[in-house]
Amino acid sequence: MSRTQTVWQSAMIPMALMITVSLSTAPGRPLLVHTQSNVGDVMDKSQTTNDENWVNKNKSLRILSDIQGLKKNWDGYGAESIPADVILLARSIVVALNHQPEIYPTKRRTVQMQYELRDRSYLELEIYADKIEALSVPQRKYEKAHEYTISANKYYEISDMVDSFYS
To answer: Where are the domains of the chain?
Structure first.
Protein backbone atom coordinates (compact mmCIF):
# COMPACT_ATOMS: atom_id res chain seq x y z
CA MET A 1 0.00 0.00 0.00
CA SER A 2 1.40 3.41 -0.93
CA ARG A 3 1.81 6.30 1.52
CA THR A 4 -0.93 8.23 -0.34
CA GLN A 5 -3.42 5.36 0.12
CA THR A 6 -2.59 5.12 3.83
CA VAL A 7 -3.12 8.84 4.41
CA TRP A 8 -6.36 8.79 2.41
CA GLN A 9 -7.76 5.80 4.28
CA SER A 10 -6.95 7.30 7.67
CA ALA A 11 -8.83 10.45 6.69
CA MET A 12 -11.94 8.62 5.48
CA ILE A 13 -15.14 9.19 7.42
CA PRO A 14 -17.64 6.37 7.99
CA MET A 15 -20.67 6.74 5.71
CA ALA A 16 -23.15 6.50 8.60
CA LEU A 17 -21.66 9.53 10.35
CA MET A 18 -23.71 12.71 9.95
CA ILE A 19 -21.50 15.72 9.20
CA THR A 20 -22.50 19.37 9.20
CA VAL A 21 -20.43 22.30 8.06
CA SER A 22 -20.83 25.82 9.43
CA LEU A 23 -19.90 28.29 6.72
CA SER A 24 -18.31 31.55 7.70
CA THR A 25 -18.79 34.78 5.75
CA ALA A 26 -15.81 36.32 7.48
CA PRO A 27 -12.60 36.32 5.44
CA GLY A 28 -9.88 34.21 6.97
CA ARG A 29 -12.24 32.38 9.34
CA PRO A 30 -12.07 28.60 8.97
CA LEU A 31 -15.05 26.40 8.33
CA LEU A 32 -16.18 24.44 11.36
CA VAL A 33 -16.74 20.76 10.68
CA HIS A 34 -18.36 18.68 13.38
CA THR A 35 -20.26 15.45 13.77
CA GLN A 36 -23.82 15.12 14.97
CA SER A 37 -22.64 13.65 18.26
CA ASN A 38 -20.51 16.64 19.24
CA VAL A 39 -22.36 19.62 17.79
CA GLY A 40 -22.98 21.16 21.23
CA ASP A 41 -19.39 20.62 22.33
CA VAL A 42 -17.83 22.35 19.31
CA MET A 43 -19.74 25.63 19.63
CA ASP A 44 -18.36 26.83 22.93
CA LYS A 45 -19.24 30.21 24.42
CA SER A 46 -16.24 32.01 22.90
CA GLN A 47 -17.18 30.77 19.43
CA THR A 48 -20.80 31.86 19.90
CA THR A 49 -19.67 35.29 21.11
CA ASN A 50 -17.30 35.58 18.16
CA ASP A 51 -20.06 34.58 15.73
CA GLU A 52 -22.45 37.12 17.29
CA ASN A 53 -19.73 39.76 16.93
CA TRP A 54 -19.43 39.03 13.20
CA VAL A 55 -23.21 39.15 12.78
CA ASN A 56 -23.30 42.53 14.54
CA LYS A 57 -20.38 43.83 12.45
CA ASN A 58 -22.23 42.80 9.30
CA LYS A 59 -25.33 44.68 10.50
CA SER A 60 -23.23 47.79 11.11
CA LEU A 61 -21.61 47.49 7.69
CA ARG A 62 -25.07 47.22 6.07
CA ILE A 63 -26.16 50.38 7.89
CA LEU A 64 -23.07 52.16 6.54
CA SER A 65 -23.92 50.92 3.03
CA ASP A 66 -27.40 52.37 3.43
CA ILE A 67 -25.92 55.67 4.61
CA GLN A 68 -23.55 55.68 1.65
CA GLY A 69 -26.58 55.39 -0.64
CA LEU A 70 -28.25 58.51 0.76
CA LYS A 71 -28.71 61.21 -1.87
CA LYS A 72 -28.83 64.98 -1.47
CA ASN A 73 -31.82 66.08 0.64
CA TRP A 74 -32.00 62.68 2.37
CA ASP A 75 -33.43 64.34 5.48
CA GLY A 76 -35.97 66.51 3.64
CA TYR A 77 -34.10 69.66 4.75
CA GLY A 78 -31.36 69.83 2.13
CA ALA A 79 -28.73 67.61 3.77
CA GLU A 80 -25.82 66.64 1.52
CA SER A 81 -24.81 63.02 1.02
CA ILE A 82 -22.08 61.54 3.20
CA PRO A 83 -18.65 61.54 1.46
CA ALA A 84 -17.12 58.19 0.50
CA ASP A 85 -13.98 58.81 2.59
CA VAL A 86 -16.13 59.25 5.72
CA ILE A 87 -17.91 55.95 4.98
CA LEU A 88 -14.57 54.22 4.37
CA LEU A 89 -13.19 55.41 7.72
CA ALA A 90 -16.42 54.42 9.50
CA ARG A 91 -16.18 50.92 7.96
CA SER A 92 -12.59 50.57 9.16
CA ILE A 93 -13.68 51.52 12.66
CA VAL A 94 -16.62 49.10 12.66
CA VAL A 95 -14.39 46.19 11.65
CA ALA A 96 -11.94 47.02 14.46
CA LEU A 97 -14.64 47.22 17.17
CA ASN A 98 -15.56 44.45 19.62
CA HIS A 99 -18.83 46.23 20.54
CA GLN A 100 -21.02 47.63 17.78
CA PRO A 101 -22.58 51.10 18.13
CA GLU A 102 -25.78 52.67 17.00
CA ILE A 103 -24.95 54.41 13.72
CA TYR A 104 -26.52 57.52 12.18
CA PRO A 105 -25.81 59.94 9.34
CA THR A 106 -25.58 63.61 10.31
CA LYS A 107 -26.38 66.80 8.47
CA ARG A 108 -22.71 67.76 8.94
CA ARG A 109 -21.75 65.10 6.33
CA THR A 110 -20.38 62.84 9.07
CA VAL A 111 -21.31 59.51 10.61
CA GLN A 112 -22.21 59.38 14.28
CA MET A 113 -21.66 56.25 16.37
CA GLN A 114 -22.95 56.06 19.91
CA TYR A 115 -23.12 53.79 22.92
CA GLU A 116 -25.09 53.98 26.14
CA LEU A 117 -24.73 51.77 29.21
CA ARG A 118 -27.39 50.88 31.76
CA ASP A 119 -25.95 53.44 34.17
CA ARG A 120 -26.61 56.07 31.44
CA SER A 121 -22.91 56.49 30.63
CA TYR A 122 -22.65 57.72 27.07
CA LEU A 123 -19.96 57.53 24.40
CA GLU A 124 -20.37 59.33 21.10
CA LEU A 125 -18.05 59.21 18.10
CA GLU A 126 -18.38 61.56 15.16
CA ILE A 127 -16.52 60.34 12.10
CA TYR A 128 -15.12 62.97 9.72
CA ALA A 129 -12.87 62.26 6.73
CA ASP A 130 -9.71 63.30 8.60
CA LYS A 131 -10.55 62.83 12.30
CA ILE A 132 -12.80 61.23 14.88
CA GLU A 133 -14.27 63.38 17.65
CA ALA A 134 -15.27 61.51 20.79
CA LEU A 135 -17.39 62.57 23.73
CA SER A 136 -17.54 60.44 26.86
CA VAL A 137 -20.06 61.28 29.57
CA PRO A 138 -20.03 59.05 32.68
CA GLN A 139 -23.57 58.45 33.96
CA ARG A 140 -24.73 61.47 31.91
CA LYS A 141 -22.97 63.78 34.35
CA TYR A 142 -21.85 66.40 31.86
CA GLU A 143 -19.57 68.12 34.35
CA LYS A 144 -17.43 64.94 34.10
CA ALA A 145 -17.52 64.79 30.30
CA HIS A 146 -14.34 64.29 28.30
CA GLU A 147 -13.78 65.23 24.67
CA TYR A 148 -11.11 63.71 22.47
CA THR A 149 -9.99 64.19 18.89
CA ILE A 150 -8.26 61.29 17.19
CA SER A 151 -6.55 61.52 13.83
CA ALA A 152 -8.15 59.37 11.12
CA ASN A 153 -4.93 57.41 10.65
CA LYS A 154 -5.17 56.28 14.30
CA TYR A 155 -8.75 55.00 14.02
CA TYR A 156 -7.71 51.68 15.60
CA GLU A 157 -7.43 53.49 18.96
CA ILE A 158 -11.22 53.73 18.99
CA SER A 159 -11.46 50.00 19.71
CA ASP A 160 -9.50 50.40 22.97
CA MET A 161 -11.61 53.41 23.92
CA VAL A 162 -14.84 51.46 23.42
CA ASP A 163 -13.50 48.42 25.27
CA SER A 164 -12.56 50.69 28.21
CA PHE A 165 -16.03 52.22 28.13
CA TYR A 166 -17.52 48.74 28.61
CA SER A 167 -15.13 47.71 31.39
So the answer is: 1-43, 48-166
Within 10 Å of residue 123's Cβ, how many Cβ atoms? 23
CA angle 136, 142, 145 (to 5 degrees): 35
CA–CA separation, 137 vs 91, rounded Å? Answer: 24
Nearest by Cα to 60 from 23, 27, 24, 91: 91
- Spell out where 7-160 has E strands: 19-22, 32-35, 102-105, 111-116, 122-127, 131-137, 146-151
Let me know: does 99 contact 163? Beta carbons within 8 Å. Answer: yes
- Per-residue pLDDT tens digits for 64-87: 999 999 999 999 999 999 999 999
Residue 150 forms beta bridges with which residues? 132
